[in-house]
Design brief:
Elements (H helix, E strand, L loop, with lengths): L2 H16 L1 H8 L3 H15 L8 H11 L5 H18 L3 H6 L1 H26 L4 H11 L4 H11 L3 H31 L9 H32 L4 H21 L5 H19 L2 H28 L1 H4 L5 H31 L8 H9 L5 H11 L6 H33 L6 H28 L4 H18 L9 H25 L5 H33 L4 H13 L3 H36 L1 H28 L1 H29 L5 H15 L14 H5 L10 H10 L1 E5 L4 E3 L7 E7 L2 E4 L5 E4 L4 E2 L1 H4 L8 E4 L3 E7 H10 L1 H26 L9
Antiparallel strand pairs: 1-8, 2-7, 3-6, 3-8, 4-5, 4-7
Helix pairs in contact: 1-4, 3-14, 5-12, 5-13, 5-14, 5-18, 7-8, 7-10, 7-16, 8-10, 8-19, 9-10, 9-19, 10-11, 10-13, 11-12, 11-13, 12-13, 12-14, 13-23, 16-17, 16-19, 18-19, 20-21, 22-23, 22-25, 22-26, 24-25, 25-26, 25-27, 26-27, 27-28, 32-33
Length: 843
Amino acid sequence: MDVGLIVFGIAGLLTLVCFMPPLAARLKLPHSVLLAIVGCLLGILMHWHGWVPPVLGDLLATIDHFQISSDTFLMVFLPVLLFETSLSMNVRRLMDDLGPILLMAIVAVVVCTIVVGLALNAASNYGIIVCLLLGAIVATTDPVAVVSIFREVGAPKRLTTLVEGESLLNDAASIALYSVLVAALASGAMGHGGLSVSGVLGAFLHTFLGGGLAGYLMGRAACWLFTLLRGFPTAEITLTLSLAYLSFYIPEHYLNVSGVVATVIAGLVVGSTGRTRISPGTFEHLALAWNQFGFWANSLIFLLASMLIPRMMAHAGWFEMFMVLVVFVATLAARAVVVFGLLPLLRVMRMSSRVSTSYKSVMLWGGLRGAVSLALALAVIEKDAIPESVRQFVGVATTGFVLMTLFINGTTLRWLIGILGLNQLSPMERSLRNQALILALEDLQERTDEIARTDHIGSEASGRIHAVFDASLASVQDAQAAALTVEQRVLVGLAAVAQREQEMFFDILKAQIVDWRMAENLLARAERLEDSIRSHGLPGMQAAIEADVRYGRGFRIALRMYDLFGWQGWLARELAQRFAALMTKRSVAQQLIKFAHDELGPLLGEEAAQRVVDIHQRRLSLVENAMQALNLQYPSYAQWLQESYLGRVARELERRRYGAMQDQFLIGGEVYADLIQQLESRWQHIDRHPPLDMQMGAADLIKRVPLFEGLSAESQRAIGRLLRPRLALPDQSILERGSYGASMCFVASGAVAVHLPDGTAVELGSGEFFGELALLGERQVTPRVTSLGYSKLLMLSARDFDALLSQDADLRKRIEVVAKQRMRAIEVWKQFSQQPSPDGAAT
């Protein structure tokens, strides 16, 4: 076919789809349903267009000559649709409902295949394998139809996540079953015992899990490549497009696993982690670009698939129509069994939170089918090895069933959601909306009055505009946020501040104040904070802010590796990351407190806003305490960190100033480029941070202990070979029932607290030691010792202690002097504690 005609046909179809969204909105039809109608009309006109004008006739003839195959749908359009939907999904919300989603995406497909297969087998004379094949084809809910309709009707977020997640992942289960069954049908394996439950299950697990692993690895690889393309937006967006196709094709054709699952997982990875790897400005354009890609693919796949419907239904008779009805009823019954029968079991087994009856009703009715089912049916029709009667039966039954779901379920889904009230705001949301409306209208009324005075607009005209605001204010004056309880307003405020925090961290990334690794960590923690508020309310917030300043898993592993093997590099990097993260959190927390005080007060009331401020003040205090402990131990690094932070802010302010000057045409592009080049040169030193010097070598730490002063260099080297450096974290227990075994500890820097049996504590600073009493035979005296900050210790085991004291009499004498003083103090305390109290009991 001539290339010019192909371009002419595609351009004509794209011109047609431009008018579908406004027309669907005017007709109050789902976009996908209108596309199906137009596609069917085009399919009819292509064979009867002699009466139309020449240009339109040539267009229809060109479209008629398109070679539309099942591979066209599966390889050209499906990757884009899957990637676009998964890219915009919230991974954390998806993981919250992973149990119900996998149940609907896997178990529901199997149940539908079996129920439809048995129903058709009982109602027709087709073999069981043909009936099961048809069941597998119609088991997949189409992501295009489902997602587009749910977005149009404004369904709740959780309901949208459940249905979108199911429609994204059930294609893999359906295609896996379809592949096994169609191969068995083509080879006649069903009659020779070649098909088994274990074989089908093994094939499915291999394709599903293998596809997930392949998609994850390819998504992570793409995120790594984004760091090499930073600053080139067109290249970054192009990489996401190529990833959508490569993650579909490579696993499918080279690894023999599910390309559908691989594409979905790759999209989820890029959507969750790519935000910090891609240039910040590019990520904002990426969503718009993929919305455009998705619109093209959505529209074309529905038009092209619907154009095949007249041809596939040409030989449909009353028996085939009856089979379509059987399929429709059987799929609804199978879906009802899963939604109302199996889904509640997940809550009983504590694998999922409760899914309401209204949600389940919409999930039942919202199982629309579309182009994916048509593509699988077309693939059966294209296989010459399958008997003609079977191909016709599969094509007609699938096409009729898809039309029924679109025109029955699709056109009534909006009505069902409205009847159930799922597109309505909750009482809390309505009250909050009314309060926001009041604040906005009052402010706008003042501003329009001021504009009227400034521009000398007549009093009559300005009065009419003023009256519009008065009428709107009067309609909502009695239903404002005061209807909410204080606790509800506090939760609303905390959720708003949490969302604001995420955007602030992203703004910090855009300003290049932190690198993508730290931004990824900060954004993840901010998302977990929002999830805790949404799931557990105020207690969840309290627990989350305490967890936010705790040491992460990577830090604890690095500390353990240092204790075991003396690796300082990893631990130093983790300390430096914690240092920078705490400083960023402190800056953000201070801004959040101001945001809560200034913005939430008018919206939620002063009492609720003050409670939100108090909670974040406590959070700021926790961050500052953790920061102070590091500042005291590493003052030079803290100073550099402050310099770097301020320098990065200054660099961004300077960059914005030059950009504003260019936008105002004060400078040209050449001058702007030269200024940016000078800017980068001027501030490049702030990106070269020095390593965190932990000074954890035994030789360096020994010099800080006064007990070892005056010893010969040989003695110090001998001691250095026995002592093991340790880093104790703030509030970490050092010696509590022999945390490090029977050991003696020297405090090289920092301070520790020795907790005595009477509840008091003694602080030991640099140069002091503890634990020697247990090594000198007083093992019943094992007080609990905790670090007051980041303390650097020198640990001496019992065996090395004996060896050291036997070799150095002077050192033994020094230690024994201190030990005797402490033993004398313990004896005095024991005598005092055993004296009878005035009432006759021992104190």
